[in-house]
Specification:
Protein name: Membrane-anchored ribosome-binding protein
Oligomer: single chain
Low-confidence stretches: none
Number of strands: 0
Organism: Bartonella choladocola
Mean pLDDT: 89
Keywords: Membrane, Transmembrane, Transmembrane helix
Distance between the termini: 89 Å
Helix content: over 70%
């Protein structure tokens, strides 16, 4: 507020200063609003990305389980059809692993 005993130039400068303070306050308020909007938008994008990644991860796990089930079924069928060859192969793999573990 302008002082009562100030010169007209001082009063004018004080009025200009008060107007500048109001404008800076308005700019500050506008920037805060924009920052809040950007933060909200970024949060929304992050949530969508998380949901998408979670969905893709669950789908990949489901596919992996399906593949493992298929391989397990094929392995069981192979063992049933050729039990002696399967036993020999398992013994050979075990022997090789035992040699590697000694080193």
């Amino acid at each position: 507020m302008p002082k009562e005993n100030a010169t007209p130039t001082e009063k004018s400068l004080q009025e200009q200063f008060e107007q500048l303070k109001k404008e800076v306050s308005n700019i500050h308020s506008t920037l805060n609003d924009l920052g809040s909007e950007k933060l909200t938008a970024a949060k929304g994008k992050a949530e969508k990305l998380y949901a998408s990644a979670k969905e893709n991860g669950e789908e990949a796990i489901s596919q992996a389980k399906e593949k493992i089930g298929d391989v397990q079924g094929q392995l069981c069928n192979c063992i049933r059809e050729k039990p002696i060859a399967s036993l020999a192969a398992a013994a050979g793999v075990g022997f090789i692993l035992a040699l590697l573990m000694r080193r």
